[in-house]
Amino acid sequence: MDNVKDVLQWADDLIFDKTGEHLTSVQEAILTGVWQRKKYPQIAKDYNCSASHIKKEAAKLWERLAEELGEDLNKFNFRSKLEKKHNVSQGSNFGYSVQVNEGSINICVECLHYLNDLQNRSHSPPPTSQTKDRSPIINLTEAPEITNFYDSPSGDSFASRTTELSTLKQWILEANTRLITIYGLSGIGKSAIALKLIEQIQTEFDYIIWRTLNNLPTLSTLQTELKQFFSQSQENSLPTVIDYFRTSRCLVIIDDVQNIFKSGQIAGQYLPSYEDYGKFFKQIATSFHYSCLILLSWEKPREITALEAENRPVQTLHLQGLREQAAEILREKRLTDEDKWSELIAIYQGHPCWLNIIAATIIELFNGSVDQFLAQNDIYLGDIEPLLETHLERLSESEKKVSYWLANQAEAVDISQKPANLELSKSEIWQAIQSLGRRGLVERREMGERSYFQINPIFQQYIQSQKISAHPQ
């Protein structure tokens, strides 16, 4: 076995057959490092953790693998015992015998199906469409049509998203991240950046499909659609989505994920009968494969945080407003007083949808003059209000109370001290702020060694203007 990815999948299948659990990311790092003849301190440095943690996890891993193989294993003999794995002869109907030095490792019958499959596969990640000399199969029928409000005269419509795009590509193509969540306010550009990402990396995949949860399909319905899409070019259909994720390189984008979450509850809680989506997302993150699932949502699913804490190949991108490129929106609308544009962009946080709406207002009421608009010294919301209300109506009662409290603070607050006028426990306040952060409505600011929290200024203005009750019914 001369490819580390074969080693990882071999070990993953071996452990999963026995325990029902997949390799953790730290176990993958250990196996990869040892296979590359690295020492534990170097593995720890690469993994960004302590050497003692790697040593502890490695001891447990060698013990588990040794238990399965009936052989003593450690960092010194692991590669020597496994690199002769291709000296394989099919023995009886009970499995394979792998010659190792003067003895042999008897692989259990449960692993036979995997070894048969491995013999017929390339010892590398599933080939991309480039290596197969054919274009990927793509279905974007459910993807939204993106208007040209990002466009620039140079034709580079995403110049201000360069950093985000580079990060996403690194996660997918280099770090083999299996589950990515892109979350942010409605209209911030989640779908736009996902479509641009597809344009830039599509040749790395065999299948690319975009699905939306706008009509609340059950998980069973979604999985059936995915399997039908993946199987269209294959002779034999496979039983599960994960099987397709393992045998081909698939990119799946699921849009409008917030629709399967409850309104009026803490962020990321599933609607009744939709809880199995959470299990599906976890399966994608913990199963060994070279595919990627991207979730687009207004709010971050709760189980994502737990998976990130376990150092799974999971990443989250909180998409925020445009930077330099936001000026192109105002230029396209032919607004005047260009020296004032940066102030306008700062007030509306580079949010492309909000800027388009406000630009239309400036044209209607001030003949396109940004200077006259800003001279009113008010944060005008106008047609933005219905968009803000859509977000706020999803909040739980505790989130509404905390939002009102934050909206009436002149500065970012330290939550270590419970406010006397807020009828919530400290735990409820913390949970509400955490949930508001997962919706992109509360921002954290670091001041020295402490964290301070502030509600989004536009939502602050809206809450104050509406005089929303501190004790919503």
Topology of helices and strands:
Layout: H1 4-19, H2 25-35, H3 40-47, H4 51-69, H5 78-82, E1 88-90, E2 96-100, E3 103-107, H6 112-119, E4 137-139, H7 162-174, E5 179-183, H8 190-201, E6 207-212, H9 219-231, H10 241-247, E7 250-255, H11 276-286, E8 292-297, H12 302-309, E9 314-318, H13 326-332, H14 341-347, H15 352-366, H16 370-374, H17 385-392, H18 397-407, H19 426-438, E10 442-447, E11 450-455, H20 457-466
Domain NB-ARC: 163-258
Domain vWA-MoxR associated protein N-terminal HTH: 3-84
Protein name: NB-ARC domain-containing protein
Structure, explained:
The chain has 473 residues and is an alpha/beta fold. It folds into four domains: 4-119, no CATH class; 137-318, 3-Layer(aba) Sandwich (Rossmann fold); 326-386, no CATH class; 395-466, Winged helix-like DNA-binding domain superfamily/Winged helix DNA-binding domain (Arc Repressor Mutant, subunit A), CATH 1.10.10. 44% of the residues lie in helices and 12% in strands. A six-stranded parallel beta sheet has the order 4-6-7-8-5-9, with helices on both faces. Helix 1 crosses helix 2 (25-35), helix 2 packs across helix 3 (40-47) and helix 18 packs across helix 20. Residues 3-84 form the vWA-MoxR associated protein N-terminal HTH domain. Residues 163-258 form the NB-ARC domain.
